[in-house]
Design goal:
CATH topology of the largest domain in chain B: Cytochrome Bc1 Complex, Chain C
Strand order of the largest sheet of chain B: 1-2
Largest interface: A-B, 30 and 36 residues
CATH architecture of the largest domain in chain B: Up-down Bundle
Radius of gyration of chain A: 25 Å
Largest sheet of chain A: 3 strands, antiparallel
Strand content of chain B: under 5%
Number of domains of chain B: 2
Number of helices of chain A: 4
Oligomer: heterodimer
CATH class of the largest domain in chain A: Mainly Beta
Largest sheet of chain B: 2 strands, antiparallel
Number of strands of chain B: 2
Strand order of the largest sheet of chain A: 1-9-8
CATH class of the largest domain in chain B: Mainly Alpha
Amino acid sequence: MSKKKSRRDFIVIASYSMGAVGAGAAIWPIINQMNPAADTLAMASTEVNIGALEIGQALTVKWRGKPVFIRRRTENEINDSRQVDINSLRDPQADEERVQKDEWLIVMGVCTHLGCVPLGQKTGDGKGDYGGWFCPCHGSHYDISGRIRKGPAPENLEVPPYSFISDNVIKIG
Amino acid sequence: MKSSIPNSQFKNPVINWIDTRLPIFTAMNEAVGTDHPTPKNLNYWWNFGSLAGVTLVIMIITGIALAMNYTAHVDHAFDSVERIMRDVNGGWLIRYIHMNGASFFFIVVYIHMARSLYYGSYKAPRELLWILGVVIYLLMMATAFLGYTLPWGQMSFWGATVITNFFSVIPFVGEPIVNWLLGGYTVDNPTLNRFYALHYLLPFVIAGVILLHIVALHRFGSNNPLGIDIKSDKDMIPFHPYYTIKDFFGLSVFLAIFCVFVFFLPNFLGHPDNYVPADPLSTPAHIVPEWYLSPFYAILRAVPDKLLGVLAMFGAIGILFILPWLDRSPVRSAHYRPMYRVFYVIFIVNMLALGYLGVQNPEGIYIILGRTCTAWYFIHFLVIMPLLNIIETPKALPKSVSDPIFSSGSSGLSPAASRKLK
């Protein structure tokens, strides 16, 4: 009797399991269609001519639909960001790790809190308490190395993958 | 053979024939008709449930009309809304009704919820009724947010960016989830399309949950201003005609106020930045949510940590689900709870303050006030509510709904008015 019962149990469990697997397999395409499509994924790279930028000037370009901040920093700005005690930072990172050439800071212009575009690229913008960028949405302050110094954002502004094709042209992506 | 069919109660032969086979007329009569006994002492605060229902119908009808003229594409969405405003016959009216209807839907529902909080309508045995209401409220917030994205103005775009980024706080899978929600790396055309599809769907989901809300309501009937259980038929009157006429009167007052906004102040509750087309490279200097989400936005900003801020914001809504178990007092109505009555007023003022703070710049005194009000919001639910049952002595409850009316010797007055006379 008990042997018979366990065989029936096996069939019941096996059929419910197959049903669950089948339902999951049927639902998955519906969920997966919401993921980024192939054309969105095709990681477009963008080439930017930065030759026209003077020292102290900034440029915003678009990559993958998001703004990228390019900034040609002054001697003072570079020195300032290197004198900071790294251990005092929320997301400790040396300025040297964040740049390929000292003058050129290239970071995503997307606040790591909730995705707003920080102010500080234009001459009239408020640059926050640390002379870099200030996010108007929820009050995050970034320094001139794009590192988070104050406010709710948890991380530094992201450094996108990029390379110098020549002295005047960079390729982002 | 014929005698074996149980006949319906309706006299009209056509209605009788249909109702015998498909009892929809019986169901309607039991929902809002003469067969729905209702406490006889309900005051005007009990109008807002049916008002919310009417508002949902207005939103669905105007929404379908708008959908016939709207284009869900990033290149055309903003222009198609402008076309609705300028060229489509009566388009401006339909859109202004829909826009302001959203705000008024929230006004009505907030009053409906405040009524429930004051008169203890969420307490046993109506806990599930309350929880279904909170589910409707959550669905409403989701629907409103999705709809606000569709005109593709600056506030649409950045509101969508900020709110979808809430999910990036989830450890490890946060980023993939955000990309899944957006259908890309930023808010873009795939996002607009899916938001449109869901904005069209959710109101019908809300209608479904409202059906459950009404089924749960009819299990034990409406609560009443005295918060005591119904003792006998003497405490009841049929819903129709007494409350149908009262609801219609309330509805006409509501529609009069609504029309003032639609015709004379159509953009008073909105934000001018949403008449600027979306620009993915520039966040408006002063980004704020619509007023009805503002208190929760204030809570989000009050916490200087990303993960904890998002958790506090969702927690502020989540806490409503367990409210029936946080408030341990067996007395429902605040009329008989002298201390809760005071804390209730403080809670409402605190809620209005949070709403105000949510639209201010997060600077200086507003940060401190935001944190104080946020703290009080949680203290009210987590400390005051459970504590009151221990330290508060409720006043004596009347024996029945009829009791306070007749004992005051002025049966024509409402209970509140007769108490004032005493």
